[in-house]
Amino acid sequence: MRYFNNLFGQFQLTERFSFTAAFDIGIQQSSPGSSTYDLWMSPIIIGQVSISDKWKMAIRTEYYQDETEIMIPTGTANGFSTTGLSLNLDYLPTQAVAWR
């Protein structure tokens, strides 16, 4: 059996600045019928600033850990873990379209 949750909060701190904190977590039985579970997780933080009505900029950082290689098999003794950082610039020509 596998369980997964995507928990997040979005916060509008000012008229121009927003913040998102998220935590993805999953567990899966080590083998069918087992009472032990393996875990993978990813905490995420995103900050976004509205430059104007049509332009936004954001920074995102996240960590991903999958020690028992449930989602990303590596064949190594330590499993998989990584950290990422990204910047983006969004252009919103209409309310239904965003270019990143």
Kindly describe this structure.
- This protein is mostly beta strands and 100 residues long.
- The chain has one domain (2-99).
- It has strands at 2-12, 17-29, 37-50, 55-66, 80-94, 97-99.
- A six-stranded antiparallel β-sheet has the order 1-2-3-4-5-6, with no helix packed on it.
- Strand 3 (37-50) and strand 4 form a beta hairpin.
- The radius of gyration is 18 Å and the shape is elongated.
Brief account:
This protein is mainly beta. The protein has no helices and 6 strands.
The side-by-side strand order for the widest beta sheet comes to: 1-2-3-4-5-6
Helix percent reads: under 10%
Shape: elongated
Report mean pLDDT, rounded to a whole number.
95
Main sheet?
6 strands, antiparallel
Defining key terms:
mainly beta, about 100 residues, 6 strands, about 0% helix, 6-stranded antiparallel sheet
Strand and helix map with partners:
Elements: E1 2-12, E2 17-29, E3 37-50, E4 55-66, E5 80-94, E6 97-99
Antiparallel strand pairs: 1-2, 2-3, 3-4, 4-5, 5-6
